[in-house]
Amino acid sequence: MPKVNIDNKFIVETEGKRTLLEELEEQNLDVNYSCRSGFCGVCKATVVNGSVVKTENTMCNLAENEILTCCSRAEGDVELTFKNKVDIFQSAYALNI
Q1: Burial class (CB in 10 A: 0-12, 13-18, 19+), 95
Q2: Which residue of 19, 70, 74, 80 has the smallest Cβ count within 10 Å?
Q3: Burial class (CB in 10 A: 0-12, 13-18, 19+), 90
Q4: Residues 68-97: tens digit of each pLDDT
Q5: Could you tell me which of 43, 37, 31, 45 has the C-alpha nearest to residue 91?
């Protein structure tokens, strides 16, 4: 299973079948997002190492090595960094309250 290393802080094992955003949410990691369809760019990350597959075209201008986690999945082990801090999601929804 592919492993996703986030900012050298979190390592998540994924199935590589869902988008990176979905995989990270499954692990209760709080990643900023808005549209989930490649328009807004809020879930943007930089691929430091490894490779990802785009699952759909995006409308955002991306620099080299930048991806939208809502439109990408891990092809193998990958290291990502986010401009916005990623942390453990602590909402009532994540805690099943």
Answers
A1: exposed
A2: 19
A3: exposed
A4: 999 999 999 999 999 877 765 544 444 444
A5: 31
Task: Give CA–CA dist 56/29, Å, rounded.
Answer: 23
Of 1, 5, 21, 16, nearest in space to 89 by CA: 21
| Alpha-carbon Rg for the chain in angstroms | 12
**DSSP at 44:** E
Residue 40 is encoded by which pair of tokens? 């807004």
> Which alpha helices (H) appear in 19-79, and where do they start and end?
20-26
Phi and psi (nearest 5°) for 5? -100, 125
